[in-house]
Amino acid sequence: MTKGNINVSVENIFPLIKKFLYSDHEIFLRELISNATDATLKLKHITSIGEAKVDYGNPKIEVKIDKDGKKLHIIDQGIGMTAEEVEKYINEVAFSGAEEFLDKYKEAGKDTGIIGHFGLGFYSAFMVAEKVEIITKSYKEEPAAHWTCDGSPEFSLEESDKTDRGTEIILHIAEDSTEFLEEGRIRELLMKYNKFMPIPIKFGTKEINDPDFTPKTTKDKDGKETTEPHKKITVDNIINNPNPAWTKQPADLTDEDYKSFYRELYPMQFEEPLFHIHLNVDYPFNLTGILYFPKMTNDLNLQKDKIQLYQNQVFVTDNVEGIVPEFLTMLRGVIDSPDIPLNVSRSYLQADGNVKKISSYITRKVADKLKSLFNNNREDFEKKWNDIKIVIEYGMLSEEKFFEKADAFALYPSVDGKYYTYDELYNKIKANQTDKDDKLVILYASNKDEQHSYIEAAKAKGYEVLLLDSPIVSHLMQKLESSKENISFARVDADHIDNLIKKEDTSISKLSEDEKTKLDELLKDIVPTEKFTVQLEAMDSDAAPFLITQPEFMRRMKE
Ligand code: ADP
Ligand code: MG
What we know:
The chain has helices spanning 13-20, 27-48, 83-108, 183-193, 255-265, 346-351, 353-376, 378-398, 400-406, 422-432, 452-460, 473-483, 498-501, 513-526, 552-558; strands at residues 2-5, 61-66, 71-75, 129-137, 144-149, 154-160, 166-173, 201-209, 217-219, 225-227, 232-238, 275-281, 287-293, 308-311, 314-317, 332-336, 412-413, 419-420, 440-445, 465-467, 487-491, 533-536, 546-549. By secondary structure, the protein is α+β, with helices and mostly antiparallel strands. A nine-stranded mixed beta sheet has the order 1-6-5-4-7-3-2-8-11. A hairpin with a 4-residue loop joins strand 5 (144-149) and strand 6 (154-160). It is elongated and about 115 Å long. Residues 31, 35-36, 38-39, 76, 78-81, 89-90, 93-94, 97, 119, 121-122, 167 line the site of adenosine-5'-diphosphate (ADP).
């Protein structure tokens, strides 16, 4: 047995780790399972290239609670370590990683969001354990090693009689961390961080019906049927899906596969997604993932289930702000990329070249998908418009690139339920508005019931009236007015549309002169003339005897 001192410049690093990471203690499990996964995948690699002459088999990772012994075990069947490697990788490498972490942490100041994202690695075990043991046997022909450390810079290293290949980490859970001896708490963490990790993770066992057993049904002499009970067998309780949909090729997945993956991601969501977008790129950065368009409500705050960010199938965060353009944070799904730096602050993230590229790649993919949905099945796209418009309109306002692309598929619905693209709308109005030569006026209503008579009047003159009622559409109109030539939007009850929908002078009045004077008097008293314009018999239709309008700019000012 050897004893030694871990070479650190910080006198005692453990209290520091504990203090700094107080709120993120739970990440220790993610880190240890990540290491177990790495060790297993390394073994897979070296056996596949013939470097290790051992049988890879069907390795799994086991997490085991020993409540009485106050211990938590994480056991893998991976590559293992020799005593020499423990010295090197645990005492030196892992420790320098921990030191580096503390430096970075101090650099990043108080930017709290980052802490849990940083891979502190093996030493995060000391956030919850007062003593940590490593019992490990390498795939190489060498005796197993047993390393023990109680949180001081001292460690001991001795031989062990472990015979099977792999590593067992034993955490002696500290008094203040006994929550990590609760089955429910550990299951919660496994579901949060490890649900899609690539190696099967066993947590306990479960009983299932024996698939090789068919219960017999027998009839007694009265003809009554009885079926014998199903035979149960005990199997490993595997908590993860090692092959989640996003790691597969789109060609190998059906629509149903995508939907069932959505249910796997969001078990509490009963509404089906409208459509999905499979992301897959390996140059100039690496990124896979699946994004889903859920049914949107106008209430942007309602969004609870968010896009999840993974790194090599390990959950990192569901805060993708800065990585995904803001308007797309309303979507759901997963993004998996090893190229997103996680150990830095948000402001750094926004300036990072790779992250910028990732963000614009995602924007482009989403726009392309929307375009192909529109081209391939316009009818279906129109049906979904109401549920997706909020994302698209928001995107058009906030991302110039998306605005340009969205021209091909953004829809403008009419009060009669027709849908136009911008070009279609423009051509239609142009053909109609021969009485206006300076600017094309696009009429719209924001409320079909309240503006009913105005709508009828405009329609009677053959004008198209749009129904634009989403909360951000007035901003979008401004954007269109400034980027398209010679158009302006006017609500059907705005006053500068007079000459569009005013009754022709030649028509015969239905009101007598006396009635007109009385009506005039009456309206003058109740309608503030500095804000509104009153016109008697302004419309072709019989819908109303007079029309009250307001300048478009005044109305927009109020909004
Ligand atoms: P990182 O995983 O980023 O390398 P860690 O601190 O998590 O840093 O681990 C340090 C090193 O210890 C690993 O690189 C690996 O060589 C070794 N190690 C940790 N856990 C295991 C394990 N379960 N099996 C084999 N080697 C391991
Ligand atoms: Mg690690």
